[in-house]
Amino acid sequence: MTTPASPAPTEGDAKASNFLRQIIETDLAKGTYTSRHWAGSPGDAAHQAAGQPDPAKIRTRFPPEPNGYLHVGHAKSICLNFGLARDYGGVCHLRFDDTNPEKEDTEYVDSIIDAVKWLGYSWEGKGGSHLYQASDYFDFMYRAAESLIERGHAYVDEQSAEDMRANRGDFNTPGKNSPFRERTPAENLARFREMRDGKLPDGAAVLRAKIDMASPNINLRDPAIYRIRRATHHNTGDKWCIYPMYTYAHPIEDALEQITHSLCTLEFEDQRPFYDWLLERLNEAGLLASPPPRQYEFARLNLTYVITSKRKLAQLVNDKRVSGWDDPRMPTIVGLRRRGYTPEAIQLFAERIGVTKSDSWIDYSVLEGCLREDLEHKAHRAMAVLDPVKLVMTNWGEVFGSDDHLETCTQPALPHSAIAEGETPPPDRVFMIGKAVWIEREDFEEVPPKGYKRLFPGNVVRLKGGYVIECTGCAKDADGRVTEVHAKVIPGTKSGTPGADSVKAKAAITWVGVADGIPAEVRLYDRLFSDPHPDAGGKDFLSALNPDSLKVVQAWVEPSLAAARPDDKFQFERHGYFVADRVDHGVGGKAVFNRVTGLKDSWGK
Ligand code: ATP
Ligand code: MG
């Protein structure tokens, strides 16, 4: 009876199929949702029936609770929901799940909007701008609750919280019916209205769905659907003192918005029977359009060395373990962005990890690998010296006629391999070499360890893009610390000139000219936790914090970086990828770069 799935319409890259794509393709082939109408906004059955046939082939939604900043796990869900809608001629709604009056904050609402846009997605199109807030549906939710009561599907329970808990039973024991369970619809309706009208104190009663106290699925043992809570809601103010429970609100939100495929993480699997039960009851009453949305579960993202609980992330911020939600070590979208992640890298990551129905851990190196793949052909190359010591070419004046003489050097901004066929290479970088240059302290050894190929007395090395030099020795301070490295420049060996290869160098080292280098603060970020599963099994994640997750150094960088704007990414040759900090770079004329990632995977080591 199932029609063979047709291949997904794809743009560019062929997308790997997965169980959700198969479900959608089957629905499209069968025309499961072709009868739906869309009146241009969310609403009940009558509202939608008056609308056009839905221009969106499918509707998905991303429904964050605006109680924190989004993280890399949410990014997976965003890429999944918006990506499927885009690929199948549908639309994805951004819905703020703000039914809980206590927790919302406009700071979070704004940050969520920014994050979804930055990731490259849009909720516009197919008959409207689909940015919604669940609290706009409170009136309908209330009406639906009265309808359930009138038809004997819900009752007001006034047992104490303890009795209610005890009578719910457990996995091995069926629950016991509440003494309030057999109230008549008229009694329940009157009592529910008293709840609404503020006649009962907080916690004195709840409205419960009347299903089955003996169900093996505890979620079907007459779940609470409304509670009394005197709290001012950011949208509805003090209009309500009763609020719907999440498990009741969520299916209704989906149905009013005509969602076709409601994707959630696996922990909601046991809620699906209630989701279906509720929507069936409301369809029967003619309140909601048919066919109802369906819920499908996928495995949440678990990433090694990362925690994704909003509460724990908030604790890191509040305890000042990090500089804020956008600290470049945070797995929040604002943190990843400030760290130098690109939307393309995150989308590639979501595509690559795919969706499955069983929980597993994804290695952090997969995320970093996607970023390197993206930056490899985007990030212009540059030289930077992170632990500088001065190298002086003692024969410079002799060779060039003056100690102040400067020679111009050029190097490509992108190597040949990083430029796609037919693409014009960016202009070369230009910098100067003079008598003194900055080199990495570790690139000189007075007594070289075995196999060492860089600078030591007597060795011949190329200053990358500049001259070949022969090391002659060094100067040291009273403590024996090297203060200056000495060398002789070998004339006629400048890179790119005919004689460049006349002298063989043992190694090429990176450097920055003393004459034209610019000072920069470089923030060397490393993993925030040293444990791959920092909060697994109830572990204290704070004790797994990596004490060396941030090291700040004063570096010298080549002059091409004077043009860097916040968010610009570079590959500092030999060091890795770096980004001009989006907050601090350029402030007071100061250059600030963050290490995004090294050049190679170091997570397994
Ligand atoms: P809380 O920890 O406060 O319950 P949450 O992580 O569930 O928050 P929500 O704002 O409720 O956050 O999540 C919005 C959506 O993001 C939900 O559909 C949820 O399933 C999805 N989501 C959250 N965390 C992950 C994750 N780690 N992997 C995939 N999807 C996730
Ligand atoms: Mg949640």
From TrEMBL:
Residues 509-581 form the tRNA synthetases class I (E and Q) anti-codon binding domain. It holds the Pfam family tRNA-synt_1c. GO terms for biological process: glutaminyl-tRNA aminoacylation; glutamyl-tRNA aminoacylation. Residues 35-55 are annotated as: Disordered. L-glutamine binds at residues 97, 246. Gene3D superfamilies: HUPs, Ribosomal Protein L25, Chain P. Its main location: cytoplasm. Residues 379-489 form the Glutamyl/glutaminyl-tRNA synthetase class Ib anti-codon binding domain. Its EC number is 6.1.1.18. It comes from the Bacteria. One of its GO terms (molecular function) is ATP binding. ATP binds at residues 65-67, 265, 300-301. Keywords: Aminoacyl-tRNA synthetase, ATP-binding, Cytoplasm, Ligase, Nucleotide-binding, Protein biosynthesis. It is found in: Cytoplasm. InterPro entries: aa-tRNA-synth_I_CS, Gln-tRNA-synth, Gln/Glu-tRNA_Ligase, Gln_tRNA_ligase_bac, Glu/Gln-tRNA-synth, Glu/Gln-tRNA-synth_Ib_cat-dom, Glu/Gln-tRNA-synth_Ib_codon-bd, Rbsml_bL25/Gln-tRNA_synth_N. It catalyses: tRNA(Gln) + L-glutamine + ATP = L-glutaminyl-tRNA(Gln) + AMP + diphosphate. One of its GO terms (cellular component) is cytosol. A motif ('KMSKS' region) lies at residues 307-311. The keyword Protein biosynthesis applies. Residues 57-375 form the Glutamyl/glutaminyl-tRNA synthetase class Ib catalytic domain. Monomer. Belongs to the class-I aminoacyl-tRNA synthetase family. This is Glutamine--tRNA ligase. It comes from Hydrogenophaga intermedia. The lineage of its organism: Bacteria, Pseudomonadati, Pseudomonadota, Betaproteobacteria, Burkholderiales. The gene is glnS.
